[in-house]
Amino acid sequence: MIRHIKLAGLIVALLVIFLPSFTLAQDVNFSVSPAEVHIDNLPPGEAAEFELTIHNKDEIAHNFTIAAFQPPEEERREGRVEFPDDSWISFSSQEIEVAANSEANVTVTVAILREQQWAGGDWETWLGVTAESSDLLAVKLYVRLLVSTSGTKFNAGLVAGIVVGIVILGCGGYYYFRRKARPG
Amino acid sequence: MKAAITSIGVAIIMALIFSLPALAQESGTITITMTGVNEISISLDKTQWPLGEVAADTECMTSPPIEWCTLTVEGNCNVKTRIVGEDAEWVDNAEYKWTLSNDGANGENVYGLWFRISGDNTRGPLGDGYVPITKTQSEFWPYSGGSGSSLAPGNTKQFGLKLLTPTYFVGGRQMQTQITISAVAA
């Protein structure tokens, strides 16, 4: 009898409630536009701005969060590499409440550091928009952000070549004028 | 001396004439292009799976198993979808959790999550259509080696879930987790 009680106790102890917090359906229906943004010819040291529109198609208000996400290499557009630093992307608001059947805009700013190494870049990152929910299944919509910077990268070889050229030209010119200046 | 100064000056000027165009940054107008008026959106017709009490080391499936939830592409652009899971946390104290397995297997305080898309009979490590959901985002649909390259507006995909409870866990605790299905323009 005692063994049976112990076994029953053990089984009860192994039971757990695995329930989402809500019992009513709370499916969030929303959209984001544009789905893809290209910023071209952005010089290092400068910034560009654009707006994302979140459309809440539900009958109730929802909170949305926005964050940058580094996509896996195989999901990036051809020729694009990882965006160097997510901190270069800022949002007018990372959390926004959108009323029922309404739209709201979020301003996204992309600012590139003023360093020559960031010239000539072709990068891709994704901006993820999620509706806050405690349901088991959630939806996240990503906007592709493709950024290309202008200018050419610092070329140490080219600079070294120019320095050597100046020295050679200087020496050549000096000896030429010196010889020319000698009498007879 | 005068010749030397003149020579060096001429050399520098000549070098600069040839090198400046190469060193100068390309200048131009910053262009921001929003691809058309593309709107991205997907919807799920179910977002909850109330399981009630579960025992250790037990497999639980949605009902129906593989046509439980329908994903619909709502926007006006083709999309690729991905899926990611997370650890399950005790609602009263997030310190206690079940770790989400990285291969669908279970263990002590480790649970497994799987999905199966209707019509997929051979996908996944066991070749039965079930694919583990892990904490690393992975392909939902389309997938490498599968048919199709994207989901078009109006397309739907039905799927089901499978949960494998830990081999051991502390009982009587309400656990909560989230599975995120994401979409990006194809």
Q: How would you characterize this protein structure?
A:
Chain A has 184 residues and is α+β, with helices and mostly antiparallel strands. Chain A has helices at residues 2-14, 156-181; strands spanning 16-17, 30-33, 36-42, 47-56, 62-69, 81-82, 89-91, 95-98, 102-111, 122-131, 137-149. Chain A is built from two helices and eleven strands, in the order αβββββββββββα. Chain A is rod-shaped. Chain B is mostly beta strands. Chain B has one helix and 14 strands; from the N terminus they run αββββββββββββββ. In chain B, the strands form two sheets. In chain B, strands 2, 4, 5, 7, 8, 9, 10, 12 and 13 form a nine-stranded mixed β-sheet that branches. Chain B has a three-stranded antiparallel β-sheet with strand order 11-6-14, with no helix packed on it. In chain B, β7 and β8 (93-100) form a beta hairpin. Chain B starts with a helix and ends with a strand. At the A-B interface, α1, β1, β2, β3 and β4 of A face α1, β1, β2, β3 and β13 of B. β3 of chain A pairs antiparallel with β1 (31-34) of chain B, so a sheet runs across the interface.
Q: Beta-strand level of the residues of chain B, as a percent range?
A: 35-45%
Would you tell me the overall average pLDDT of chain B?
A: 89
Most extensive interface, chain pair and sizes: A-B, 77 and 74 residues
Q: C-alpha Rg of chain A, in Å?
A: 30 Å
Q: What level of helicity do the residues of chain B show? A: 10-25%
Net shape of chain B: elongated
> Into which percentage range does the β-strand content of chain A fall?
35-45%
How many extended strands of chain A? 11
**Count of distinct strands of chain B:** 14
Query: Unreliable runs of chain B, pLDDT <50, ≥5 residues?
Result: none
Q: How are helices and strands ordered from N to C of chain A?
A: HEEEEEEEEEEEH
What is the assembly state of the chains in this entry? Answer: heterodimer
Major sheet characteristics of chain A: 6 strands, mixed
- Helical run tally of chain B: 1
Structural class determined from secondary elements of chain A: alpha+beta
Described by the principal axes of the CA atoms, the overall outline of chain A is: rod-shaped
